[in-house]
Design a protein that fits this description.
By secondary structure, the protein is α/β, with parallel strands linked by helices. It has helices at about 40-55, 70-85, 100-105, 125-135, 150-155, 160-170, 180-190, 245-260, 265-280, and strands at about 15, 25-30, 65-70, 85-95, 110-115, 140-145, 175, 200-205, 240-245, 285-290. The chain has 2 domains: about 5-40 and about 150-300, Rossmann fold (3-Layer(aba) Sandwich), CATH 3.40.50.1100; about 40-150, Rossmann fold.
């Protein structure tokens, strides 16, 4: 029996693709992070960030946790704050799904919603969210998790890498999208030190290929592509960077639901689109691993799954 809800974070299943797997190509496996309590891998980073801050005194009883968020990070922080007894103050935007905003509030978080440019995720939007969070972080008793700069979050994904390595048995290529870059770095670090060579492929939105081309733009893939190079990004984290369009990410997320029964968001669609492209170039004995980042239940009223979608 878990000691509390936070004890249910992690130990998520690994599932192979069947109908979408390329004939004659490598095996493709997905770590199903939607089985975490809020339906997202971000539960891991929220728990790691808050526990580290508790240990070193940055977060004290009665304190307030502050963050800017595209949604899943905020939901995960709100969960951990509810379980630990902290106030939670979040900054988000109407660019992100209504489900995520409502989910944060359901856990008792106070949510400030900033307007976007026609629902697009842009550099200007993320920087406005960061600036507002910085204002809240100056208030007495506040602890800003500051997800783009907090290395405790990076370490929070080491367990995910250990689980993936143990379950897959062999990983030749790890493919994953970049938001803050913590999950790519944390998992990739564990896989690379586990024995044989592992190729790491980073994924970013084609409309905002800041890592591969130095160009920023608006896109529609929630949770990735902040429009500028993340502060903790290092080119050595990935062997290559692949750009996937919002349309391709959406199409693949819908195919995952209809052909594999795996219900996820657009960042997962981007992951799988890129993973399948890699798998087609490799022999059947190779394994390509990626992450099912979050549940599609977070996007039911968006253009991804709402009425008129694909």
């Amino acid at each position: 029996m878990a000691r509390d809800v936070l004890g249910t974070i992690g130990n998520t299943p690994l599932v192979p693709l069947r109908r979408l797997a390329p004939p004659g190509g490598a095996r493709v496996v997905l770590k199903v992070e939607s089985t975490n309590p809020t339906g997202s891998m971000k539960d891991r980073m929220a728990q790691a960030a808050i526990e580290a801050a508790e240990r070193d005194g940055r977060l004290r009883p009665g304190g307030t946790v502050v963050e800017y968020t595209g949604g899943s990070t905020g939901v995960a922080l709100a969960l951990v704050c509810a379980a630990r007894g902290y106030r939670c103050r979040l900054v988000s935007s109407d660019a992100f799904s209504r489900e995520k905003l409502d989910h944060m509030a359901a856990f008792g978080a106070e949510v400030t919603v900033l307007p976007s440019d026609q629902g697009r995720m842009t550099e200007a939007l993320f920087k406005a969210m960061i600036a507002r969070a910085a204002e809240y972080a100056r208030e007495p008793g506040a602890f800003w998790t500051d997800q783009l700069r907090n290395r405790d979050i990076h370490r929070g994904y080491h367990a995910l890498g250990e689980e993936l390595r143990a379950q897959a048995g062999r990983v030749d290529v790890f493919v994953h999208s970049v938001g803050t870059a913590h999950s790519l770095a944390g998992v990739g670090e564990v896989l690379r030190r586990g024995g044989g060579p592992v190729r790491v492929v980073a994924v970013e939105p084609a409309e905002s290929p800041i890592l591969s081309q130095g160009r920023s733009g608006g896109h529609r893939i929630e949770g990735i592509g902040v429009g500028f190079v993340p502060p903790l990004w290092d080119a050595s984290l990935a062997d290559e960077v692949v750009a996937v369009s919002s349309d391709d990410a959406y199409a693949m997320a819908r195919r995952l639901a209809r052909e594999e029964g795996l219900f996820a968001g657009a960042s997962t669609g981007a992951n799988v689109h890129a993973a399948l492209a890699v798998a087609r170039t490799l022999p059947p004995e190779a394994t390509v691993a990626t992450l099912l980042v979050d549940t599609g239940l977070k996007y039911l009223t968006t253009e991804l799954y709402g009425r008129g979608a694909g």
